[in-house]
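Notebook, p. 212. Picked up where the previous page left off. The plan for this session was modest: take the two constructs that came back from the sequencing core last week, fold each one, and keep the raw output in the notebook itself so nobody has to go hunting through shared drives later. Recording the first one now, exactly as returned: residue sequence, then the structure token string.
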Amino acid sequence: MKKLLLGLLPFIGVQAYSQKPNVLILFADDQRADALSCSGNSYIKTPNIDKLADGGVQFTNNYVMGGHHGAISAPSRAMLLTGKSLYHVYDVLEGETTMPMHFAKYGYETFGTGKWHNGAKSFEASFQKGENVFIGGMCDHYNVPCRSLGTDRKLTEPVAKGFSTDLFADAAIKYLDNYSNGKKDKPFFCYVAFTAPHDPRSPREDYIGMYPDETIPLPGNYMKYHPFVFDDMQIRDENLAPWPRTPEIVHASLADYYALISHLDDRIGDIIETLKNNGLYENTIIVYAADNGLAIGSHGLLGKQNLYEHSTNVPLIIIGPGIPEGKVSDALVYLYDLFPTLTDLCSISKPDGVDGKDITPVIKGKADAVRTSLFTTYRNTVRAVRDKEWKFIRYPESHYTQLFNLKEDPLEINNLAGIPSNQSKMEEMMNLLVEWQKETGDTAVLESKSKLPMGYDPTIYIQKPDRWQPEYTLKKYFSK
């Protein structure tokens, strides 16, 4: 009898692994939360992502904590992959336990494709397989330098290939087909990190014009200029259009942005169809999310180097076995909550040292929230805190404060900070901000010794293209 049990152990182990759900993470780049039709945007077509939302749980208050430099996607991805807050992890992940590493420890086969903004060595340490891997922050969508992960777990030299969204979707589809034709003795962890809809604003040729410029309305908080100066008003993202931000250029930018997202949605549809055709869909947890948002004309800004809702609030959809269908949650969550949440959903041990909270109780209807407020930061120049109703933004260098009632003013247009009747609310939110600083280890001062002026003259700024802009974008956005 003992010999029989010993002989069955490998089989029992295989069964235990294969019965665990697979994990597929679909990660967009620079997609604001409202740039989906399932988020109430009637001007954009995202039917495949909408189906994911219909079949699972959509979180409307999901946030990136922020960044310590302008390339927000690097710290955002570092937080996602480690489950740690901005103040406990840095961009380069060497020495850190990443999500794919942790899942591999519990018997998962790991595959990665797409953007990896956290160093080549950490990709090699994190994944067992990888194809069409882009090491870096951004590139020309038409000409992506891609690498593959060899059997020696080393990345090859980069080779310039075709359009980004297709390269990464095709790699994921190829992996899923190969997995299905293989032993399937282990569940898979598949990470697909797109570079769309990050600029350059250059959709694939057949998607150009999908949304005529004049059909896309301006954001409700559109402004020609940001009303005051903070940090670097000419940082790379803000240099993608001239000042003032004209209605014409914002219309055009949004049209190209939406076209990039619709192309992304189409290819996500292909990936989901591959899961279904291979009999993998029913046992796969699918996550759709993005690393950070984008202004694109909101508040007179273009980029994500700010703490307004359009730049910190990002999509999050979770669908899969045991997850309710058609649920929308307004719980306050962070991207880095995903790591402990996915370990719970997959019945594996939670990693040590994570800051993220397991949001499974919210997903399964056992709780309405895991926290009552959120803290966001950008460099040492902006700090913000919000609860379910109020948003408080502090600019230490100018000693300036904004207070918004998000229930009545979700577009953050009416600053209520100067109204005497709001003094107690101001004190309450400032105290909350200080509490968050203590909890996270943020040592930034909230009022600098010297007060910088808030006025500026953006008409003197000169727009210059960078090396990643293809001919289409140069002609449309940079030629005079």
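Okay, moving on. Second construct, recorded in the same format:
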Amino acid sequence: MSHQHEDQGAVVCIGVFDGVHKGHQALISRAHEIAQEMGVPLIALTFDPHPLVVVRPELAPESLASLAERRFLLFNAGVDDVFVLPFTPEVATWDPETFIHRVLHDKLHVRAVVIGQNFRFGHQGAGDIVTLREAGERYHFSVTEVGLAADAEPWSSTRVRKALAAGDLGEAAKVLGRNYDLSGVVVHGDHRGRELGYPTANLELVGNPVVPADGVYAGWLVVGADRLPAAISVGTNPQFAGAQRRVETYALDRTDLDLYGQEVTVIFVEYLRGQLIFEGLEGLIEQMAADVTKTRAVLGLS
């Protein structure tokens, strides 16, 4: 954090911002206007881990973006700085006043707060917009509540999770404003794809990310500056009685890639089919060839 905020203060928008979807983008865009009018920086205040991980772990959702991705997406959406409050069991006990005083006032020198509808904070969610407005009178900051941005229904992280669980990538992309992706380090799998002529990059998933529904997808494999067309398989590998859910990606026509140990991103574009079990390997290999043909068509390469 730079110290320039201290003399001039800042506009602070608050949220978990998981996935930084179009609803979050609308909130940030409004906060950005306010920051420009006031001539001060815009800070996104977010929490890590998700507060529910600490408060009600059994209800904690899978995440739509790692903290690093969330930061990147927040900067992309137009904030000047990201302040991550580590959400610890101690922070979970803070009453709203403690949070406002320690974080918003002392640390961020807040001059305006921008929140989404339904925003609650403090121990057991005791704080709301009324609490913030009362504190704003004492600490001299304004409070703006932004209604939930929507198409037919509000854009939300829950809606994205539901869409991904159903393999509905179009709906997920509509809410996110981009195609869903997963990043991770490539680790050794069973090397079966290599033997079949379709070597795949097996992604190690860290944290608790949302993995789309089992099946085969058309998409892209991003390695450094390269964006390679790819067929992606998600599932437990039923053909070989696998038990562990995996994300395995075949970069079309590339049998020369050695990606072990590299960080890659897999972008999901379209669901092609569910996981199938074939009588013999010929059937599987024929199907893989068909998946590749369909992937080319979806990505506009054929």
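Notes on construct two before I forget. The mean pLDDT is 91.
Flagging for discussion at group meeting.
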